[in-house]
Design brief:
Blueprint (H helix, E strand, L loop, with lengths): L8 H5 L4 H12 L1 H14 L4 E4 L15 H7 L2 H17 L5 E4 L5 E9 L2 E11 L6 H13 L6 H8 L7 H25 L10 H16 L6 H7 L4 H12 L3 H16 L7 H7 L5 H12 L3 H7 L1
Protein name: PocR ligand-binding domain-containing protein
InterPro entries: Homeodomain-like_sf, HTH_AraC, HTH_AraC-typ_CS, PocR_dom, Tscrpt_reg_AraC-type_HTH
Pfam family, one: PocR
Length: 310
């Protein structure tokens, strides 16, 4: 619901790294994403965009299917600032699984995380919809808030746009988010083949070490991998590898490996025919107890709980 006319310190201080944006740009330019975005928009009438982590500008503003009501709100400084805050709150809540939040006007925005291994790289974003029929009481409350903020807005145009907002029932919308979750997992998978396409000659040597390490983990996560073996695989000393990897990802090699395995396990847990013990060993854990501890530490729930809620 944001536009470029709204300025906030959040936009400049929380921008993702250039490398992170490059990978996200490559994903958004891939034929797979373009085909899915077109199909999603045709089926739902909703906009869809990939938003890099900590990029709170309106990822949906130039997308077909964007809500005119949101665009009008974004022309006011207060409405724009409120939406930036909501986007930041939504990102914090959606780090591990899809989440939705409602803005002060009652509209719903949703973010679905795209995780490569244990690293959060971006979100699929959609929304700008209502989960109930638009009503005069809610619209009046919104306009009163805007006037209290001192915002100048064309109330007639705003009212017309509000009552034309798309409405979904909660069950239907939840089903759409589950489809987006599956697509996010697919994008994470193809990112492993997209990332090495970056020019290694122009890349920083330390970036090359981390990139090769991520690829090594992605290909061998179900095997026993030691820190020394990983460092050797990328032609780095163990000490240097530890330092560079943590600086680039924000977590240790061991934690990244565990998170990669847990992400793979989450996907396998959707298959009711696979036992938890089978999934534990298939994803590289040495024991069921180790699997259970790692899974709960990373997701906040046990594998069995995750499966039952899925």
């Amino acid at each position: 619901m944001l536009t470029e006319t709204c300025h906030s310190d959040t936009d400049s201080t929380c921008a993702p790294s250039g490398a992170g944006r490059t990978l996200v740009d490559r994903l958004s330019e891939s034929q797979l994403y373009r085909d899915y975005e077109q199909a999603f928009r045709a089926a739902t009438g909703l906009p869809l965009a990939i938003r890099p982590v900590k990029a709170y500008e309106n990822a949906l503003k130039s997308r077909e299917g964007g809500n005119p009501f949101c665009m009008l709100l974004a022309q006011t400084n207060a409405g724009c600032a409120n939406c930036i805050k909501m986007q930041a709150d939504l990102e914090q809540k959606a780090g591990m699984e899809p989440k939705s939040l409602h803005c002060f006007a009652g509209l719903c925005d949703s973010a679905v995380p795209i995780r490569v291994g244990g690293e959060l790289i971006a979100f699929l974003q959609t929304g700008q919809i209502l989960l109930h029929q638009p009503n005069q009481q809610e619209f009046s409350r919104t306009t009163k808030q805007l006037l209290a903020w001192g915002s100048e807005v064309n109330l007639k145009a705003l009212e017309e746009a509000y009552f034309q907002t798309k409405v979904f029932n909660p069950e239907q919308y939840d089903a759409m988010l589950r489809l987006l979750s599956t697509f996010a997992e697919h994008l994470a998978t193809i990112s492993n083949s997209i990332e090495p396409q970056q020019s290694l000659a122009a890349a920083d040597p330390e970036d090359q070490v981390v990139s090769r390490a991520k690829k090594y983990i992605s290909e061998r996560f179900n095997e026993r991998i030691s820190l020394d073996e990983a460092a050797q695989a990328v032609n780095a000393s163990t000490r240097h590898f530890c330092k560079v990897f943590k600086q680039a990802t924000g977590i240790t090699f061991t934690d990244y490996l565990a998170r990669t395995r847990v992400e793979k396990a989450k996907h396998l847990l959707q298959n009711p025919h696979l036992r938890v013990s089978e999934i534990a060993f298939e994803t590289g854990f040495d024991s069921i107890s180790q699997f259970n501890r790692s899974f709960k530490r990373i997701t906040g729930m046990s594998p069995t709980q995750f499966r039952s809620e899925g």
